[in-house]
Design goal:
Blueprint (H helix, E strand, L loop, with lengths): L2 H22 L10 H11 L4 H4 L9 H21 L10 H21 L1 H15 L4 H21 L11 H22 L2 H19 L13 H4 L5 H22 L1
Helix pairs in contact: 1-6, 1-7, 2-6, 4-9, 4-11, 5-6, 5-9, 6-7, 6-9, 7-8, 8-9, 8-11
Length: 254
């Protein structure tokens, strides 16, 4: 095996090992942060260009599907929960909700750019393309790596952990999220575009539906049904958006 072909494997395994160790030792709140120096180290070691890693702005039109994704999918999941009578906002603190929404969204846009998006759809994407992986293979590989990296947070007792029965649903959704943000990166050439979408998604999903076994502002208890990230409705809606986004990507490449 050529030395260059080891970079994606070793880099990904290092990221997973560091994060899993932090999740196992009570540092889950900070477990994404080591991706930033790891991204910088690998980027420098391989002498990659800024464009290769995707640190470009992209075109203004690229932000339309990026922003629409969380608005449409989470909005549709909220509507489904309302129709199903699953919403209970009697105990909701709306001031706290708006703070969580804005703070979570803005911090994730900036944070994801130098951690999850910068690492998986930035450096790893570029490293795979360098060793000759096609765009579809790179898209799938980075999405699977992204999902595996999340495993320790939802399996170990971290506060984000899920009941065993909900794990398959979450993992399917996590892979779909990875594919969608990967397609945004593929179509735009920019991890900034993907980071904006990621940030808005996290801000909305966690404020409205929360995470782990917690309940968000909507008071939806049956998140395994209605959750955009933890529910069956999420699998349906994310799959539909992924299919539409793939058509957008193909149109950009023709």
């Amino acid at each position: 095996m050529k030395k260059s072909s080891l970079w994606p494997l070793l880099g990904t395994l290092t990221a997973i090992a560091i994060t899993a160790t932090m999740d196992a030792t009570g540092y889950t709140a900070f477990s994404a942060l080591p991706l930033a120096p790891l991204l910088a180290l690998l980027w420098y070691a391989q002498r990659m260009s800024r464009v290769e890693v995707g640190f470009t702005w992209g075109r203004r039109g690229d932000y339309v599907p990026a922003v629409l994704y969380p608005l449409v999918v989470i909005g549709a999941a909220t509507l489904a929960a309302a129709i199903g009578g699953a919403i209970d906002t009697s105990d909701t603190n709306w001031q706290h909700f708006w703070i969580n929404l804005l703070a979570g969204g803005l911090s994730t846009i900036l944070g994801a750019l130098i951690t999850e998006e910068g690492f998986f759809r930035g450096w790893l994407w570029a490293a795979l393309r360098r060793i000759g992986c096609s765009n579809p293979r790179t898209l799938v590989a980075t999405s699977v790596a992204f999902t595996i990296w999340h495993l320790s947070a939802v399996v170990l007792p971290t506060g984000y952990d899920l009941p065993p029965a909900q794990l398959p649903i979450y993992l399917v959704n996590a892979t779909l999220l990875g594919l969608i943000w990967g397609m945004l990166r593929l179509g735009s050439g920019s991890v900034i575009v993907a980071s904006v979408s990621h940030g808005i998604w996290n801000g909305m999903a966690y404020a409205l539906f929360a995470f782990g076994t917690k309940t968000g502002a909507l008071g939806v208890a049956d998140v395994w049904i209605y959750g955009p990230e933890r529910g069956l409705i999420g699998i349906l809606l994310n799959s539909l958006y992924a299919a539409l986004l793939w058509r957008w990507v193909r149109a950009r490449q023709t």
